[in-house]
Every structure is written in structure tokens, then in C-alpha cells.
Write a structure and sequence with these properties.
27% strand; 6-stranded mixed β-sheet; elongated; alpha+beta; 20 helices
Length: 703
């Protein structure tokens, strides 16, 4: 026999769909019920003439029975199934997992793209992710609402919107947007060269993990970015109507088929409609006939016309999934848009969402999109925007070299083996190794060492803030980005990249161990490495200290690669030498070794116009603690030197801050503190005056 699905399971499902018992089929084909049972259990296969009789009995053709890649004709309609209320009186007023993230397209892009990366199928090729914004109005919107069964859904929405809680208010705004402005925004996330939602509708598998369950993370790769099963919730969180429709092309056939497996899921709060209470979620699909799941909506194999009406047509038969967010919104875009006439604001909102998607993809996945001479990218990403099927913003492919030129150059140099040990030219990329001590699981004694890769290169204007260290692991998604502390004055602007775990290379020793350790140290947002419950439970309560030591070692390695010897650059660049002056002891005195004095000062002006200073203080020998007040003055071109206030003073080493006064540790010979000036006290802009930092004896302090 030809065909995809095994004959027994296929026949059993057809009988359930058509409401025909095994005894009835046996009677129609003139055989015993035992013979039919043997077919269904796989103990026997019917002969050719019997196959034709079975086809006639269930209302299909012999070809369908031989191929078994489609179901026999069934009149079961596609409809919404709403989960009944809990019998114990419990009530859920929304999906708690959705509240773990903001309704923000940047967050959505990060989480959804990470999930696609985790499901990359052919590891020699990139996974392709495409975001499509589609604004529907007028007749196009009316047709779509008919396709999703809006008339049957509306009473549920109306009841949910009337509830005075967060989900209800969001739904009310979504209904208002659609009803009063005749406008609905769809956001579709397509991936190709991905696994697709494989598996049974209810049993363990990718499909059930995404569509039926919460906090179920089923990843096919140990280096996967996600581990909590929360990322998928961003899809529903980004919908004002709580609705996501799904079309998946499977990498492994299910029921003999792979293309156009459709399902819809709706997340609403507990509600009562026409006197009947409902728990919350609902599913759009075909009413099931399996024992124990009668009338529950299950996925169905849709025809091309249905897929087109639901705006879910995929560009090819390559495996992957399309998620359609119905009523997409982006809180950040709304706040950033300029208020004005309705039409102008509509255009700007869609445009802002498009731009923010491109920016988010570039910032978070530039490394995954970077390739080398013999290293393929992990990801390709693009964004386009439509209105009623017409292009508003043409497809824009995210180019990592345009978005992150310096960092991309650094990663390509590592891929191509062109890094150097020290930076002597602006176009070079320096590489160093940073050790990560990975502890044993379960709190057992001992560690193994993993050598992470650190890359440093000169910064370019297109990279954003300079002097940043970007860290990542296996999927090469940016996990965290932070400014490297304690840089010497005069350090040339740079960008640094830290590759750990599998990102450092498959051949790097203990990459698997490092990958698992760092993954356990990430919170649900996957935006830092530090203490987590999983790290605590899997390793030990003190395992986070290994992360802290790793971070310090990475920052120290950066400073080593970019630093200049202080004896050659003691005073920093001329621009800052002209603006900074160190204290010379107490006000009104001459330089004396009998008072604390600032020996080294690192300072910069931030984007808000405040001075950030870090001061190293030399302390004369003394048994009692020194108590001094830091003072800042502007050295203006004329007139007296006005004092400026501090918005913050922070004790760093051998001192503490009490009521704005520095108390230096008794017996210490050096100390370090940092401070930020209060812009509201500046008489002029910071770049129009020099800054004088002094240490004054605090009032009431002992001689």
C-alpha cells in the first residue's frame, strides 16, 4: 500500500469523524467486526477489492485510501471551542505568563526570533524569519472577521471587556480601535528552515507545548536561548484581542501530512456568556471525535483558500510556522508617536512598529546574522508592512554590517582567523581568552574551566554607545550589554564582544558545560547572567559568584587590550585636561601631604549634561578615619567659580558615604569614590566650563 499515515490509525480517525462504528463498517463491506478491528490495530491489511468497498462505505475514493494524506469527506465545521469554567469555582482573569513581558514589539521580536533560532532545522543553513505588519480596513477587514467567526466571538469579547481588570481594559481598547476606526493591525511572524509544530494535538510535542500548555519548553538544542516556556506568551501579549492564529508546515509528518496545519488560540479572562461560565482560553479548529476529547477544537488541515482568507499563506513548503497576531499593538510606539489627526497617527504607528522591529532585530541578533568566509549565518531576518494587501513599506532585510559595523567586523575577524593580540590600527580586532570556572552540578566540589573568547575593536558612530561589552552564548543572541567600568582617561572608543559556551566554537573545551551553566543563570527575559532559582537549585547557592568572577575577568581583559600606560597618559586627552582640575587639599591651603588628595580622576559628560567622575584618593597615614566632603565647582571663563551639587555620591573602596560625607577607612592609604553632578545646579552647560573637584574637611570633623 502507498500512503503517508498508517492505515489503521487513519481508518479509525475517519470512522470517528463520520460517526461510523466498526460494526457498521463491517456490515457495509460484508465482513466481520473482528476483521475491521484487525485493520485498525494493524494486525491485518485489507485486500484491493476490500479497499474499494471501504472507500465506498465511508464516501471517498480508492486513491484517498491508498495515499492517506487527506481525510475522507467530512461535514464537521471549523468553530471555536471555549473551555468550560472550572467545577471547583476557580477563576483566571488572564494568562499569567503574558504578564511576564511588556506588550512591546521589541520584546516580541527578541522572544519570537529566539524561538525560531532554537528550532533551526538544517544546521548548515540559516533560519529565515520574516515579520509582516498588515493593516486591514473596510471590506478587507469585514472579510477577515467573517473568516474568524467574529459574530460568534463578539459576545465573549463584550463580556470580557466589561470586566474591571487589566485584560478587560486592554480588550476594550482593542474593540474600540476596530469598531470606531474600522481598523485592525495584524502582525505575522513567519519562520522557514524550522521544525514546525510537530506532534499530537494533546500529547507531548512541539504542537501541544505551544498551543495547549504554559511553561512547557521543548527545545531541540542544548544551546537554545529559551528555557522557561514563557517566550511564546509574548505573541498573545502583543494582541489587544488576545488572539493568535497559526499555520505550520511540519518537518515530520503528522497524520500523513505536513502542510497547512492550522489552529487558533484565544486568551480571554473568565466570563459568563448567556448564563454559561467559561474558564478563559478558546481554540479555533475542527471539533474532535476522539474519546475523552469530544468537541474540543483540534488542529485541521486547511485548503489554500481558507489559509488565504485568514492571511496565513506561506511563501513555500519549507518547514516552519506562521503566527498571526490579531489586533497587534505596541505600547512604546504609541507613546513615541506624535499626537495629531487620526489618519496621520495611524500611518505613524504602523511605521513606528516597522522601524522598532528592524531596530530590535538588529540590536539583539546582529551576531546571529553575521557570517565568515567559512561560517554561515544562523539567521536571516526581514520586515515589511502592508495595508489591505498593498505594500506600504517594502520588505527591509536587516543587515548586521549596517546596524553594528564594529561588532560585526570583530565577529567576522574571529570567524576568519584574522584577529591580533594587541590593537595597533583602527581596523584591527584584538582577541583574548577569558576563563569561566564552571562548577559541578548538585553542589559537588570541583570546577572545569571554559575559555570564552573576547573580541575588541575600535568603535564606529553607527554602533551606538561606545565602550560597551556585549555578551552572548550559543544562539549568538545578545544576552547583556554593559559599559566597561574603570577605563583610563583617554581610552579610545571601542566595542567589545564576549563569546561564551557554544558561541565560542564547538571545539572549545567544556563548551557544553559552560552553555548549560550560563543558560541556568538567565532570567525569563534572558537579558543577564546572575543568580536565579534554577542556578541555585542545579548548582549551589554560591554558584553565581562564578558569574561575577567571569564578568570581572572579562572587564579586566578589555581594559588590558584597550588601556594605555598611565605614565604615558597620566593626564588623559587634552580635551578633558582643559576641563578637569584635581583638588590640592583643603580649600585655601597649599598642596600638602598631610591632607587627603585626589590622585587620579576619571570623568565624562553624559547625554543629559551631567559630569560622571570617579576619583582615587591618596590618604596620609593616620589611625583615625578621615572625614571629608567632596566638592565640585565650575571653572567658568569669568567671575567666581560657582559650586554645583551632587545628584549621587557612591563609595567604592575603603570609604562609606553618610549624609553626603565621605568617611575614609582608618589606616587606609588609598580610597575610591564616584559621583554624578546635579544638572539642575549647573549655571551653564557642562561643556562650556571646566570642572574642579575638591576635598574639603567636613563640618565637625576631628583635626
Amino acid at each position: 500500500m502507498d500512503g503517508g499515515e498508517d492505515f489503521g490509525p487513519w481508518l479509525a480517525r475517519q470512522l470517528r469523524r463520520l460517526g461510523i462504528s466498526q460494526a457498521e463498517l463491517a456490515e457495509r463491506v460484508g465482513l466481520t467486526r473482528a476483521a475491521v478491528s484487525a485493520w485498525i490495530t494493524g494486525r491485518a491489511v485489507p485486500r484491493e477489492e476490500t479497499m474499494r468497498a471501504i472507500a465506498a462505505a465511508i464516501g471517498t475514493d480508492p486513491g484517498t485510501i491508498h495515499t492517506r494524506t487527506t481525510d475522507a469527506v467530512s461535514t464537521r465545521p471549523i468553530s471555536w471551542y471555549h473551555r468550560p469554567a472550572y467545577t471547583d469555582g476557580g477563576r483566571d482573569f488572564g494568562n499569567a505568563a503574558a504578564f511576564a513581558f511588556e506588550a512591546d514589539v521589541e520584546v516580541l521580536a527578541r522572544e519570537a526570533t529566539q524561538n525560531s533560532l532554537d528550532e533551526r532545522l538544517d544546521r548548515t543553513k540559516p533560519v529565515r524569519v520574516r515579520y509582516i505588519l498588515h493593516e486591514l480596513t473596510g471590506e478587507v477587514l469585514a472579510s477577515f472577521r467573517e473568516a474568524i467567526g467574529w459574530d460568534d466571538l463578539y459576545p465573549h469579547y463584550e463580556t470580557a471587556a466589561a470586566q474591571q481588570q487589566k485584560v478587560g481594559r486592554v480588550i476594550a481598547e482593542g474593540l474600540k480601535e476596530m469598531n470606531e476606526r474600522d481598523r485592525l493591525i495584524l502582525l505575522r511572524v513567519d519562520d522557514y528552515n524550522a521544525s514546525g509544530l510537530t506532534g499530537d494535538d494533546y500529547e507531548d510535542g512541539r504542537f501541544a507545548a505551544v498551543v495547549r500548555r504554559q511553561l512547557d519548553s521543548r527545545k531541540s538544542d542544548d544551546s537554545a536561548g529559551g528555557s522557561y516556556g514563557l517566550g511564546k506568551a509574548t505573541l498573545w501579549a502583543a494582541s489587544r484581542l488576545g488572539m493568535v492564529l497559526i499555520n505550520s508546515t511540519l518537518s515530520v509528518s503528522h497524520e500523513g501530512r505536513t502542510e497547512r496545519r492550522l489552529i487558533g488560540r484565544l486568551d480571554l479572562p473568565w466570563r459568563v456568556v448567556d448564563g454559561v461560565p467559561f474558564a478563559g482560553p478558546a481554540w479555533l479548529g475542527e471539533p474532535d471525535t476522539a474519546p475523552g476529547s469530544e468537541n474540543v477544537a483540534r488542529s485541521w488541515w486547511a485548503d489554500e483558500e481558507t489559509v488565504a482568507r485568514l492571511h496565513l499563506t506561506r511563501e513555500s513548503s519549507e518547514p516552519g510556522t506562521s503566527f498571526l497576531i490579531v489586533g497587534a499593538h505596541d505600547v512604546a510606539s504609541m507613546f513615541n508617536d506624535v499626537a495629531g489627526e487620526d489618519d496621520g497617527r495611524d500611518e505613524q504607528t504602523v511605521q513606528s512598529m516597522h522601524e522598532r522591529l528592524v531596530t530590535a532585530l538588529a540590536n539583539n541578533f546582529w551576531a546571529a546574522m553575521t557570517s565568515g568566509k567559512e561560517v554561515a549565518p544562523l539567521l536571516e531576518a526581514s520586515v515589511r508592512t502592508l495595508r489591505n494587501g498593498q505594500v506600504v513599506v517594502k520588505e527591509e532585510r536587516v543587515d548586521p554590517q549596517l546596524a553594528q559595523p564594529s561588532r560585526t567586523r570583530a565577529l567576522k575577524a574571529y570567524f576568519d582567523g584574522t584577529t591580533v593580540e594587541r590593537l595597533t590600527d583602527a581596523g584591527q580586532v584584538a582577541m583574548a581568552r577569558v576563563p569561566l570556572k564552571v562548577p559541578e552540578l548538585g553542589g559537588r566540589k570541583g570546577t572545569v574551566e571554559h575559555q570564552a573568547v573576547l573580541l575588541v575593536t575600535a568603535a564606529e558612530d553607527g554602533d551606538g554607545k561606545p565602550n560597551q561589552l556585549v555578551s552572548m552564548r550559543g544562539s549568538r543572541m545578545t544576552v547583556k550589554s554593559a559599559r566597561v567600568p574603570d577605563l583610563s582617561l583617554g581610552t579610545n572608543p571601542f566595542q567589545a564582544v564576549l563569546l561564551a559556551g557554544h558561541a565560542a566554537g564547538a571545539a572549545v573545551e567544556n563548551a557544553d558545560r559552560a552553555e548549560a551553566f550560563l543558560r541556568a543563570s538567565e532570567p525569563p527575559e534572558h537579558n543577564k547572567w546572575g543568580q536565579t532559582e534554577e542556578l541555585w537549585a542545579s548548582y549551589s547557592p554560591t554558584a553565581y559568584r562564578r558569574i561575577s568572577a567571569f564578568t570581572k575577568a572579562a572587564n579586566a581583559a578589555v581594559r588590558e587590550l584597550v588601556g594605555r600606560r598611565k605614565d604615558q597618559n597620566q593626564d588623559g586627552p587634552k580635551a578633558l585636561r582643559d576641563l578637569l582640575r584635581l583638588d590640592v587639599g583643603p580649600v585655601g591651603s597649599t598642596r600638602s601631604s598631610s591632607f587627603p588628595a585626589i590622585r587620579d580622576l576619571d570623568a565624562e559628560v553624559d547625554s543629559f549634561g551631567a559630569w560622571h567622575v570617579k576619583a582615587e584618593v591618596k590618604l596620609p597615614a593616620r589611625q583615625d578615619p578621615w572625614v571629608m566632603s567632596p566638592a565640585a565647582r565650575f571653572d567658568v571663563r569669568s567671575g567666581s567659580r560657582p559650586s554645583v551639587g551632587w545628584s549621587e555620591i557612591v563609595a567604592l573602596e575603603n570609604c562609606q558615604v553618610i549624609d553626603g560625607v565621605l568617611h575614609f577607612k582608618a589606616g587606609a592609604r588609598t580610597a575610591t569614590f564616584a559621583g554624578t553632578t546635579d544638572v539642575s545646579t549647573h549655571p551653564v552647560r557642562a561643556d562650556l566650563a571646566g570642572l574642579i573637584v575638591e576635598l574639603q574637611r567636613a563640618r565637625g570633623a576631628a583635626e
